[in-house]
Specification:
Blueprint: E1 7-10, E2 13-16, E3 45-46, H1 69-82, E4 87-91, E5 97-98, H2 100-107, E6 112-113, E7 123-125, E8 136-139, E9 150-157, E10 164-169, E11 176-181, E12 192-196, H3 246-249
Antiparallel strand pairs: 1-2, 3-6, 4-5, 7-12, 8-9, 8-12, 9-10, 10-11
Length: 272
């Protein structure tokens, strides 16, 4: 039996784990008291794994399917409840690699399993004060990616001093959610906060790409009604039918008093 001070390795990074009991959930962070050899993470790969050939970078800028914070956390919770086993060369039922970067790729709903060296290409740097659920804390050791590189999904602060947070992460033996010191157990100063560029505001599940606002980083809320165009578009001489659809955005047309009623101008004058 392993000693209580044994550690598990996630994407080459050390995280606390106890062999005789499950990891802490949302209480005080455990203590990291020992060290062990790291293990590599998988390279970028298509869903369900490389089809018999090495994965190559996709041409053009990374695709960022629009999604919401709620959907990101919902997907992370699904793996957490299922206790998906950690495996750098294993792929889950949804096709994503079962290591730390594959887990974030799944939560962000990316088109393939990325790795710590490519996740920043789908995100923008933010500050600690800007962190919100669905963002990530990422450390990629460019000099030696197999030593210490790791990524966690931010689930919210667990104290008012913001010294620890709820971390969703893929680690041995399986996906977990627990209170974690900011920014991480080791190499804390090297973990940087990022926000997914395809993030859409509002509640709900993923927003289809065809409903995303052109040119915007993400999408408008699904089903949102276009805003009133403003008085400037109604100036004399405008040939564009700016009033199209105005009935559903502004004042609705007034219905007739009764079916078959004649227009006002056709009704006979009423004399007193």
């Amino acid at each position: 039996m392993l000693a209580a001070t044994a550690v598990a390795v996630a994407c080459g990074h050390l995280t606390p784990a106890l062999a005789d009991e499950p990891p802490p959930s949302l209480g005080a962070p455990a203590r990291l008291t020992d060290a062990a050899q790291g293990s590599p993470q998988g390279a970028p790969a298509p869903l369900y794994g490389p089809p018999g050939r090495p994965s190559v970078p996709l041409p053009g800028p990374p695709a960022t399917p629009p999604t919401t914070r709620e959907a990101i956390i919902e997907r992370a919770e699904k793996w957490t409840r299922a206790k998906v086993p950690y495996a750098m060369d294993g792929y889950g039922a949804d096709g994503y690699r079962q290591d730390c970067s594959g887990f974030v790729s799944m939560a962000w709903n990316l088109g393939r399993s990325e790795w710590t060296g490519s996740l920043a290409g789908f995100a923008e740097r933010i500050t600690k004060d800007e962190l919100r659920p669905g963002d990530i804390l990422l450390f990629h050791n460019a000099e030696n990616p197999e030593k210490g590189s790791h990524v966690t999904l931010f689930g919210g602060w667990t104290n008012s001093s913001r010294t620890q947070y709820t971390a969703y992460e893929q680690t041995r033996p399986a996906t977990r959610r627990q209170a974690t010191p900011y920014a991480y157990w080791t190499n804390g100063s090297r973990f940087l906060p990022y926000r997914y560029r395809g993030l859409a505001e509002g509640r709900g599940r993923d927003i289809p790409a065809e409903r995303a606002a052109p040119g915007a980083p993400g999408a408008e809320r699904a089903g949102a009604v276009p805003a009133h165009p403003g008085a400037a578009v109604f100036r004399p001489g405008r040939s564009r039918p700016a009033g199209e659809g105005f009935g559903r955005r502004g004042v609705r047309p007034r219905p007739s008093a009764r079916a078959g009623a004649a227009p006002e101008r056709d009704r006979p004058a009423r004399h007193r």
